[in-house]
């Protein structure tokens, strides 16, 4: 069997980061981000196209400068539970913070989604990027980077322990013998670690896929290490083909170094394809989008987000990039630190930094269907990804990709012609994790 | 318009407290408590009968002696989000702990359910009864009673503040003027109280009913006080007609003493009606249930639950009730303390206490449809309740009540012939809370 591309859909409602003009498009409903029927339609479109998953991002802090979709949106697990019963095969990946949740509650909610969906739940583990989130959870300061990542690793390990509370045959439910539960198959975790203390057991059993699939978005050293240790899917940072190649190789190598099969971590790059009947029409549509999203103040606010919702409008736009190193979080090597390093090395003004953020978002997948399919194949063959996390603007843009590009990928044997499985794990080619408390060898084994 | 009875349905899957034998009934699916289709069917049956709400209880601690439904069940908000899109009118009340959640996350999840359901969310605020839950949330000891209730009050106030983050007209989404959000209509709460610190704003707007409806189950002095201050629905403790009358009068009086309209707090008693074609057949069915649930060890474990999952089997069953006062939580006047007081005053053995718990669960609503309707009317006229929270065993038992008793109540003008509203508030006759940040008077006003 040849390797296949995995595809996920990543709906952004009225407009995510940089999509400043999307809400003004008459084809986008003004309440899309809080309309469950919008998400159900997206999920059904993804399932109709045989995509692996619907991917829902999240955040826990806003102010009035935040992207439209962030201001007013549904909580991902609540959202995906509602979507679950309107779909049968597509995976349901919810972003949730390991910094601002408790493992018992969160593990339980993911297990519930996993049961409700018949084994299609995924958890995108984030440590919360917005430092302002701390003040929504009783803290004066954001936990520092190493603490957040240490907690994230321990959190995932605890969640997995809780998900294994019941062995698969824990409930004989045998009326004749009067045995509903076999108590020997129920296990308390009794975890006491550096960041977390959780006794268990969890009050819910495992689903058909054993455990929800763990996604992560590792960029920094800590992030890549966390991904290599526990992630089964990665939402990769993107960039040039070379950057994507390097990232891919690095993650696979790190994963192997932890004794894991590198095939058991699927790397998704971000893709915002622009597809039209001809290459020229696609480039025209790309320019149109570029102009729709042309909002300097919006991009200035977006830049501020990487520095704890800092207000950059107080600085001279045409002076050198201001000294805001004190705002980049200690111990972190993401977002803010990278922006500062680039501004220094390239001697950029504040205005140039803002404009460069915009440039960064241009997609390598622009053109007629065949052109886009060619680019995707090129990137795939270059070992830059296992899958693409696709973001579109309007339903028409989704359809242009699904009806135009997907059939070509399918013809080339690069994308499935039917779902391999009813579970997210099954479709991603991931093994069902063995229950850590089970004594006898089980059939499902990694 | 004459006063109408409100009805809620309270599904217990494979069997809640005392329903030891339910899972053995061949009409009950062994996986009912984790089967979303079971809950969707219950919700649709409730909606078909024009009930006000589906009511989902919860807990965060188990051991192997816990009731079957508790061992392995779906988390209530995840569950009700999935149910929401399969119903249009029935309210969706989820139990959630104010002790073991953070206000930002929980307020957001309820607001999401409220949007997904079009204004039908309710929150049953509990402070977590099982002392063992503490160890699932990083604590060595359960927070004491006054702390839990103090936190609960503050938590509800914070949640309400977060739910008001956006004024109703905060999103002009006016493409011509290029204004998606009117920033003056977004409000941070900046709460810093005795138990909680939460800045806000919340990243989701208000639903058609303004805010989710607050339910509570006040029994103790602290519980009743909390209910009178913030609850809009109460799940009452039950007991004899006289006890229910006293409770009802007390809550309405306390509510008025806080300057609130006593009509704006709806008191639901628990009801487990047993309905059959004739009174005799219903009594036969009641005896059958009584025998099905005859499980001394199960009741012994249930007794232990009130004392922090204490194992009473180590004591002599026929000696006087053991001295376990040290296990009854400090400052609490619920469960355990009431059991000890009764055992002392009536000089009961351990065995007698266990048997008395069982007796307590007998329903006043047993008989042919007309008999049950008569009893319900008698209790309603005696000012014992505004509504009944109905628990049944099998789908057939639901149908016997819905097809037999509800039409009689309807004929007598005691129950609605159509939904008054699309929102839970509307159907319960509760006002839409005014946004605490709005400057101008709004139409919806309490």
TrEMBL record, chains A, B:
SUPFAM superfamilies: Bacterial luciferase-like (SSF51679). InterPro entries: Diverse_substr_monoxygenases, Luciferase-like_dom, Luciferase-like_sf, NTA_MOA. The keyword Flavoprotein applies. It comes from the Bacteria. Keywords: Flavoprotein, FMN, Monooxygenase, Oxidoreductase. Residues 31-382 form the Luciferase-like domain. Its EC number is 1.14.-.-. One of its GO terms (molecular function) is monooxygenase activity. Belongs to the NtaA/SnaA/DszA monooxygenase family. This is NtaA/DmoA family FMN-dependent monooxygenase. It comes from Streptomyces polygonati. The lineage of its organism: Bacteria, Bacillati, Actinomycetota, Actinomycetes, Kitasatosporales.
């Amino acid at each position: 069997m040849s390797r296949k591309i995995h595809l996920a859909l990543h709906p952004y409602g009225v407009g995510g980061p940089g999509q400043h003009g999307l809400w003004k498009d008459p084809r986008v409903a003004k309440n899309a981000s809080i309309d469950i029927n919008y998400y159900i339609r997206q999920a059904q479109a993804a399932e109709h196209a045989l995509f692996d998953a619907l991917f829902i991002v999240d955040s826990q802090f806003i102010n009035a400068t935040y992207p439209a979709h962030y201001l007013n949106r549904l909580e991902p697990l609540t959202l995906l539970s509602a979507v679950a019963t309107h779909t049968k095969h597509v995976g349901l990946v919810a972003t949730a913070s390991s910094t601002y949740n408790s493992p018992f509650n969160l593990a339980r909610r993911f297990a519930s989604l996993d049961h409700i969906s018949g084994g299609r739940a995924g958890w995108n583990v984030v440590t919360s990027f917005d430092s302002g989130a701390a003040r929504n959870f009783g803290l004066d300061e954001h936990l520092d980077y190493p603490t957040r990542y240490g907690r994230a690793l321990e959190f995932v390990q605890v969640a997995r322990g809780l998900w294994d509370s019941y062995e698969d045959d824990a409930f004989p439910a045998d009326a004749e013998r009067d045995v509903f539960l076999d108590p020997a198959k129920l296990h308390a975790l009794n975890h006491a670690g550096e960041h977390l203390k959780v006794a268990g057991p969890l009050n819910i059993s495992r689903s058909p896929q054993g455990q929800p699939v763990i996604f992560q978005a590792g960029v920094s050293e800590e992030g890549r290490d966390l991904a290599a240790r526990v992630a089964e899917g990665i939402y990769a940072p993107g960039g040039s083909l070379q950057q994507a190649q390097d990232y891919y190789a690095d993650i696979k190598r790190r994963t192997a170094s932890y004794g894991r099969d590198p095939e058991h971590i699927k790397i998704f790059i971000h893709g915002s394809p622009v597809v039209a009947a001809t290459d020229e029409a696609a480039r025209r549509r790309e320019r149109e989008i570029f102009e729709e999203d042309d909002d300097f103040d919006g991009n200035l606010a977006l830049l501020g987000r990487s520095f704890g919702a800092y207000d950059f409008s107080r600085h001279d736009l045409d002076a050198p990039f201001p000294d805001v190193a004190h705002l980049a979080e200690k111990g972190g090597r993401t977002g803010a630190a990278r922006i500062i390093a680039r501004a220094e090395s390239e001697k950029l003004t504040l205005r140039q930094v803002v404009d460069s953020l915009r440039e960064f978002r241009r997609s390598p997948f622009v053109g007629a269907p065949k052109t886009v399919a060619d680019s995707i194949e090129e990137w795939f063959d270059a070992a830059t990804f296992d899958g693409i996390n696709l973001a579109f603007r309007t339903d028409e843009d989704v359809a242009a990709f699904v009806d135009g590009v997907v059939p070509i990928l399918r013809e080339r044997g690069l994308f499935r012609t039917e779902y391999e499985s009813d579970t997210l794990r099954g479709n991603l080619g991931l093994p069902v994790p063995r229950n850590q408390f089970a004594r006898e060898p089980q059939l499902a084994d990694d």
